[in-house]
Amino acid sequence: MKALLLTLSLIVVLFSGSVSMPLALAQYQGGGVNHPGTWYVGEGLKPGDYFEYEICHVDYKECSEFEMQLWIEGTIKVGTEDKWLAQAVVYDGNKIVKGNIELGKIAPEPSGGSSELSVYRGAFKSSVVWLSAYATKNTGSDTSGEKSFSAPSWGKIANIGGEQIIPTALETVSVPAGTYDTVRIQWKTGGLVSKVWVVDDFPFPVKANTWTQVSTGKAPQEYRFELLDYKENVNSNPFTSVVATTQEQVVAGCPQHYDLVDIKRSTKDGKYLIDLRYGPPDPATGCEIEWFIEFKNKFHETEFLNQVQYDIFVVDEKLTFPPLRSLAKEEGRNFLFSESGQVLKSTIVKENPGTAHYVIWIHGLAPQNVIPDNPDFLQIDIPIGGKITLPPGPSLNIPNWIKNSAGWWANDQIEDSDFVLGIQYLINQGIMKIPATTPGSGTGSDEIPSWIKNNAGWWASGQISDNDFVQGIQYLIKNGIMKIG
Fold first, then answer.
1. Could you give the angle at the alpha carbon of 393 between the alpha carbons of 453 and 438, nearest 5°?
2. In angstroms, how far is CA 182 from the centroid of its own chain?
3. pLDDT of residue 338
4. Which of 23, 98, 145, 392 counts the most CB atoms within 10 A of its CB?
């Protein structure tokens, strides 16, 4: 009789849903949509494909957004494996990072490429191509291979109480790249529904909004992305004229290796503890400061604060508000946000030589959509270096009158093209002596990086030497931005 009652109870549960099911049954949810065919990550990927995505991932700066542009150049052989070779550029705030990425052909997960892109490759792997853990080009495996849109499940998340990954609905979705007929793939994490929208015969999902798995409290964002642009049959590298800011920093003489300054203090009113490291110790105008910030409980130094709404200000000597600079405002935000209380950021120094008054400002602890009201701050005075020191170069004898043209160009009194033609003429006529320089294979356009204009202004005013300025001109020639006969 007890066995019969248990059987009847389960039948009631399955059909009415009014009684809690045992955990083993609760882990399975059925899905499937009325759409023919199958899909896998990388379906239809081919040389000449060009993608632009806006991405954030929890493991990179607390889901701070960056833009990744990806162009499939062709295939390469790595050992015995054929892979896709993609050229990529990342726009991350003020930073531009450029390099290449190797993608697998069975599952297009990044597995190699330029070291500069490693952190962004990780975010791309854990977001845009995350579904390749379930849907790949057919390998004959029970756990991967092409997945049918009508299937009730594509697999289960591998954690305790993990949820099923299921196709659930046909939806028309609009993203900056256009409007697409999609299938919504979803699962439940942290009490919230995570969603990824895929398009049949399209290599990557066009949109996603997902959450991390937590046992208590509000689930933070795990990743989100959307497709900004897509083109086919792009036959030449679209990034030839893109200049990485890391290269700008090197050419400008910014330090690449330095010690960090350690500061561990309570905020002014004692509400919070900030464990901070920054470097270089005396950054120069135009170079970067790296910030490593940990927001901690003042009573328990091993406990990080959560959901920190903060900003980094630059203020005058009297701490007058509004501040001279707000890094949040420069990123188009009302505040910066750290879910975990741990921050890694890079900022460009815009302050003049002397002492700059930086402030780590904490608005309070609250979710992103809640306005906090418990501010406190820590002020840090940082010495800003003036002249950027470059390695010594050969002695050059450039007529002083040439600096007039450089000054006019720096002040926008003459056009970029006029400046380029003038420099080309001086080099070709032997008036400006440039050390041996191999011309690059760029487009030869007159688009000049802004830091070259800064150098020209500094050169015209005597802040940098002839050698410093010539190194900038060499850079233009090497990268094909300036062509000489």
1. 70
2. 26
3. 86
4. 98
Find all residues with CB under 8 Å of 266, minimum gap 6, and list them: 272, 273, 274, 298, 378
Where residue 430 falls among pLDDT bands split at 50, 70, 90? low
* Cα–Cα dist 134/142, whole Å: 10
Q: Which of 477, 478, 460 is nearest to 423 (CA)?
A: 477
Q: What are phi and psi of 44, to 5 degrees?
A: 80, 5
Contact present, 201 and 194 (Cβ < 8 Å): no
Determine if the peptide bond prior to 280 is cis (ω within 30°): yes
Kindly report the backbone phi and psi dihedral angles of residue 311, in degrees, each rounded to the nearest multiple of 5, phi listed first. -155, 165
Q: Residue with structure tokens 């630059």? A: 314
Which pLDDT score, from 0 to 100, does residue 18 have? 36
Total Cβ atoms within 10 A of residue 154:
23
CATH number of this structure's domain 38-231, picked from the four choices 2.40.360, 3.30.160, 1.10.357, 2.30.29: 2.40.360
Q: Please, what is the average pLDDT of the chain? A: 80
Confidence of residue 112 (pLDDT cuts 50, 70, 90): confident
115, with CB counted inside 10 A (0-12, 13-18, 19+), is exposed
Q: Which residue in 129, 51, 48, 54 sits closest to 91, CA to CA? A: 54
What residue segments make up the domains of the chain, in order of their start?
38-231, 255-384, 401-478
pLDDT grade for 459, boundaries at 50, 70 and 90: confident
* Beta pairing, strands 325-326 & 95-104: unpaired
CA–CA separation, 6 and 12 (whole Å): 10
Distance CA 416, CA 447 (A): 7
Tokens representing residue 315 in the block: 């203020």
Classified by CATH at the fold level, domain 255-384 comes out as Immunoglobulin-like (2.60.40)
Task: Give the C-alpha separation, 173 to 155, whole Å.
Answer: 24
pLDDT per residue over 265-305, tens digit each? 999 999 999 999 999 998 988 888 989 999 999 898 888 89
Q: Are 406 and 454 in contact (CB under 8 A)?
A: no
Give the model's confidence band at 369: pLDDT under 50 very low, under 70 low, under 90 confident, else very high: confident
- Cα–Cα separations (whole angstroms), residue 235 to 49, 113, 147: 9, 21, 31
Cis peptide before 220 (omega within 30 of 0): no
DSSP 3-state of 278: strand
Most confident of 14-23, 413-422, 461-470: 413-422
Query: Do 276 and 342 touch, CB atoms closer than 8 A?
Result: no
Write down the residue that tokens 């900003």 correspond to: 311
* Residue 183 tokens, joined: 């299938």
